[in-house]
Amino acid sequence: MAPSSIRETQSPEATPMHRDPDAPDFVHDYVNLASPLLGSTAELASDEFFAPKERLLQDAAPVFLPDEFDANGKWMDGWETRRRRSGGNDWCLIRLGVPGVVKGVDIDTSHFTGNYPPAASIEGLYSDTAPDADAGARWRPLVRATPLKGNAHRYEAVTENDPVNWLRLQIFPDGGIARLRVHGIPFREWTAQERAGEVELSAAKNGGRIIAYNDAHYGAVLRLLSEGRGVNMGDGWETRRRREPGNDWIIVALASPGAVERIEVDTAHFKGNFPDSCSIQAARVEHGARGSLITQSMFWPELLPSKKLQADHIHMFGGEDVAKLGPISHVRFNIFPDGGVSRLRLFGTLM
After folding, report:
1. Cis bond before residue 173 (omega within 30° of 0)
2. Phi-psi region of 212 (alpha: psi -120 to 50; beta: other; left: phi over 0)
3. What percent of the chain is modeled with pLDDT above 70?
């Protein structure tokens, strides 16, 4: 197993997408497979007396409300079990909305100081039916029992290469965890029909992921690649008001290299703050660290030339508007000069 680290942090996190800038590369390079945006759910827990299991997977950074109490005690933003008095340990079963290969995990105990578990482990399996939480034979270790600290992130790289769609988080013996992030690559076995036809190359459910961006002050940037139209102005990528020259941008890694044939840019609910225009640059990148991709992307050829945008509108581009660049793996979506976009979709054929 690759080296891991514990780092004390202050909460809530203030970094874009709630990501720690000093976190391992897997946090920045892969999608959070445990996100509810992909359909992941906390299915069953041994106990959730103080705080429900569903909070464990929320995409928002955990918060602390010093004066908030409920019928069972202090309100905590995470999953928290009661104090064990009869031996054993607590656990939570998580169903991934999309099967995936796990590259690393972030066990976040933000705001849990005197009530965090001393240790935790994570196991995975691939099963078409709900597993028995107590049956250990089929579970594969992803993260063996590892020590935790209070109000800190525990990052653990994972070397298991087989896809999983169920996770078992065990804490020893009890306590609370604010968030569990499971970073990896969605596993897609493309059907013959999909390979012969059009697929949504950018969709998060297919493996599309956001690599980098210059600003994401408002909204929920991860929603940019999700399904459906935005439900409100907070359901998408929105930057702050730009007071200096230049423009805002975001880099997306496609689920699989492909030839893009049509593009949708949806400004749903963005009315007084939609971008004036947009463009897309693209390239096929075999290898490249996040930092080098940012620099490279400035010089990628145009896939979509600058196009005017409208408020609260689905913009569809195809035909001669989309350059024939052949198979690409990454795109840089530029907005001019700033503003909000609800969804970005790129459709094409797998290569």
Report:
1. yes
2. beta
3. 93
Whether residue 158 is found in the same domain as residue 216: no
Q: Strand locations in 208-325, DSSP E? A: 209-213, 218-219, 237-238, 248-266, 277-283, 302-308, 314-318
Tens digit of each residue's pLDDT (9 = 90 or more) over 118-148 = 999 999 999 999 888 776 658 999 999 999 9
Task: Output phi, psi for 222, to 5 deg.
Answer: -65, -20
Q: Look at residue 184 and give its three-state secondary structure.
A: strand
Pair 143, 231 in one domain: no
Where b means 16+ CB within 10 Å and e means fewer, 299-319 reads ebeebbeeeebeeeeeeebee
Nearest to 332 by CA among 263, 277, 251, 221: 251
Does 280 lie in the same domain as 223?
yes
User: What CATH number does the domain containing 151 carry?
Assistant: 2.60.120.260
pTM across the whole model: 0.83
* Cα 30 from Cα 235, distance rounded (Å): 21
**Are the C-beta atoms of residues 322 and 198 closer than 8 Å to each other?**
no
Q: What's the CA gap between 127 and 340, in Å, rounded?
A: 39
Same domain, 89 and 156: yes
The string of pLDDT tens digits covering residues 53-109 is 999 999 999 999 999 999 999 999 999 999 999 999 999 999 999 999 999 999 999
| CA 311-315-318 angle, 5° bins | 160
With a pLDDT cut of 90, the percent of the chain lying above it is: 83
User: In total, how many domains does the chain have?
Assistant: 2
